[in-house]
Amino acid sequence: MGDDDRDSGFGRGSHQQPGSEREREIFLSLQTRLEPMFREVYADPLAERTVVVIPGLSLDQETLAHIVGVSHYEERQLSMLMLLRLPRTRVVFVTSTPVDPVIIDYYLSLLSGIPSDHARRRLTLLSAYDSSARSLTSKVLARPRLLQRIRDAVADPATAHLSCFNATDEEVALAVRLGIPLYACDPALAGFGTKSGSRRAFRDAGVPLPDGSEGLRNLDELYAALAALKQRNPDLRRAVIKLEEGFSGEGNAVFDFDKSQADAVVPARIGHDWIEREMPHRLAPEAVGLSIEAYLAKFAKMGGVAEAWLEGEDKRSPSVQMRITPIGTLEIISTHDQLLGGHSGQVFLGSTFPADARYRGSLQAAGARIGEILRSSGVLGRFSVDFITVREGDAWQHHAIEINLRKGGTTLPFQMLQFLTAGRYDPERCEFLTPTGQQRVYYATDNLCRPEYRKLTPDDLVDLIVEHRLHFDPTQQQGVVFNLIGALSEFGKLSLISIADTHANAEDLYRRTVAVIDREVGVERD
Question: Which of 49, 255, 425, 446 has the greatest number of CB atoms lying within 10 Å of its CB?
Answer without folding.
Answer: 446
